[in-house]
Specification:
- By secondary structure, the chain is an alpha+beta fold.
- The chain has a single domain, classed as Arc Repressor Mutant, subunit A (Orthogonal Bundle).
- About 45% of the residues lie in helices and about 15% in strands.
- Strands 1-3-2 form a three-stranded antiparallel sheet.
- The longest helix has 13 residues.
- The protein is globular and about 25 Å long.
- The model has no long low-confidence stretch (mean pLDDT about 90).
Length: about 70
Amino acid sequence: MRSPRPAAATPGNGDRARIVEALGPTPVEIDDIIRHTGLSASEVHLILLELDLAGQLCRHGANLVSLTSVE
């Protein structure tokens, strides 16, 4: 019988706030966000996905992201 895998840590609101603070209208590399926030790559990618699905993230290719402009 296999032992259950530990559940992945779910990023908290503080983690989301740190990522949003690291973002702006200028595209930044996702690796820079990981280094700047100290979060794991999986946590950063999950939060970026949530922001993307909420329409708050713009992907620029070449691993670059920015916040969408609010008008």
